[in-house]
Write a structure and sequence with these properties.
The chain has one domain (2-98). It is built from 9 helices and no strands. The chain has helices at 2-6, 11-18, 21-25, 29-44, 46-52, 56-59, 64-74, 78-84, 88-91. The chain is globular and about 35 Å long.
């Protein structure tokens, strides 16, 4: 719940995050990591986060690899994050081999 308080200044993002199926199902360690990092992304770039929350691999559930990917996004510059939403490999389901 703390992560939702972190994005409270961003009401649209808070509603989007709260409506994710995996958030409604409850927490796992991967989901907590993802939720915390999504809140950090919201603080840096709410527009990018809105696009990110629409991706199938973010909406369906969060695997360990996806939690790591979201954590790595926090460290990227904003011009880099925006370009991610223009890449087909990023928009589709991520798999472990894409990271290595």
């Amino acid at each position: 719940m703390r992560s939702f308080l972190d994005v409270a200044p961003f009401p649209n993002v808070s509603v989007l995050m709260a409506s994710l199926p995996w958030v409604l199902e409850g927490h796992t360690s991967d989901r907590r990591v993802a939720q915390r990092n999504l809140a950090l992304i919201a603080q840096n770039d709410g527009a990018f986060l809105e696009g990110l929350l629409e991706l199938p691999w973010v909406r369906d559930d969060i695997s360990s690899d996806e939690a790591v990917a979201i954590q790595e996004i926090v460290e990227l510059r904003s011009d880099t994050t925006q370009s991610l939403l223009e890449n087909a490999w990023f928009l589709d389901d991520l798999t472990c081999h894409l990271f290595y």
